[in-house]
Please model this.
Amino acid sequence: MGEAEAGKARGLPEWSYVPADTSEPIRESTVGSVLREVAARCPDRMALVEGISPSEARKTWTYAELLADSETVARALAARFEKGERVAVWAPNIPEWVVLEFGAALAGVVLVTVNPAYQPKELHYVLEQSRSSGIFYLPAFRGNPMGRYLEEVRADLPDLRELISFEDWAAFLASAGPDQALPEVRADDPVQIQYTSGTTGFPKGAYLHHRGITNNGRLFGQRFGVTDEDVYVNPMPLFHTGGCVLAVLSAIQAGATLVCMVQFEPGLMLELLEHEQATHLLGVPTMLIAIMEHPDFSRRNLERVRSVCSGGATVPADLVRRIESTLGVKFSIIYGQTESSPTITLMKPDDTPEDKASTLGPVLPQTEVKVIDPTTGEIVRTGESGELCTRGYLVMLEYFEMPDKTAETIDEDGWLHTGDLVSMDERGYAPITGRLKDMIIRGGENIYPREIEELLFEHPSVADVAVVGLPDAKWGEVVAAFIRDANPDAPADDEALQSYLREHLAPTKTPKLWYHVDEFPLTGSGKIQKFAIRETWERGGYDAH
Ligand code: AMP
Model:
């Protein structure tokens, strides 16, 4: 090994490499085994609370009850599905979603987690690509007629044989045979498929394993300080790792009480924090702003709230300070991605607001990280910008049945290439400087321009299009569409394009701002330079129609 190579292998302070801290062992756990362990340890403690209004209507489960229901679900599933088969869940954050997460894991069934805002085209894509054999669904949610959409797409999905409505949950539980055997489930077995898009084409299914998500939830919970005396309120969507791992698997492994909000609403959140005596809260920055601005904020007693965690997007320093001082809490910021189960780094509670606002925090145990030059693949010096890569127990198995996409993301040495550009300092703290991937983050939700662009391209009045994230005080970023009209004398009607998109896409993905341009700034190879569009917009160079 040459001197430079040896230096890189040692890493910090000169080179952007952090070896895995192995002081905390990885467990050979499964989503089912962690529930069994905690239910044996504290059977009577409250495990799960339905976060709805009014408080008297809330369903609750102790750890013993949660295990009993999860085992019943597992037996009912095992009678219908083989180990390894995929079963989708299409519902908001109802508590039965959590029971199904554990039940599916105990039955060795792979849960495909589907965004409840999806429209038929998106639903069809994920059910077909995952070859799902079954789906649990809520017939309607927030005006989305999910039952009807499912009827529309099912004829074209030959693998889909069981449709189970959450409205028939009791009958489903009653169908479990008492003697139904459950398969043996191992830590490296697949557990979930979560769809996440890259820059190209439709979403890819991150195929996650039990070892990855259980250990990630546990290690995240340890640094976040969740214990068996805590109450954890979660508004993060369960279909995303933010909900089903960072909330569910950290709270449950600690023996804490998890309060699951069916959907985020600031007044309800404040009531839950007070009434359920919450100590921990996870949410994207937009949610935290909303609760602090709510008229009930000053009259609610939030004394017990101790730790708040946010992530998924950069959190401005001002907001960090405001949250810490207004709520009197320790604030943490998590960085990760679905493909890494998800946490890679997590701020320590005592890190400074400046670090919290401007850098990614220290890596979690058992996680190796390096920053490379994306063209040469070489580790860069600290202070230089490059792509963050990670390796260890946390890396997904693959993108489900997409070997080419997997090979583009996980290299032969097992490094997951995140697509995020960072520059690491000599302590290992790293500001995000950009994204190799072309992604918009609106209120913590990732939106992939390519999917929206492809639909607009198909519209006859559109010649060319670029969908770009533009800065916004409330949402962080909002979606903007820049259109080159097919016929400049008869420009496309924005309202018509908007309703055309709404037939195919969730409302959050529909552009808020529309601009018509004569030409786009292009790279040498003819690709649209989105950063140049953004810069021109910031200088006031575009007029909205
Ligand atoms: P997802 O797979 O939906 O969890 O999205 C992961 C992506 O969100 C990452 O690859 C980053 O681009 C972005 N992201 C996650 N956490 C942070 C953070 N703390 N600060 C800035 N961007 C983040």
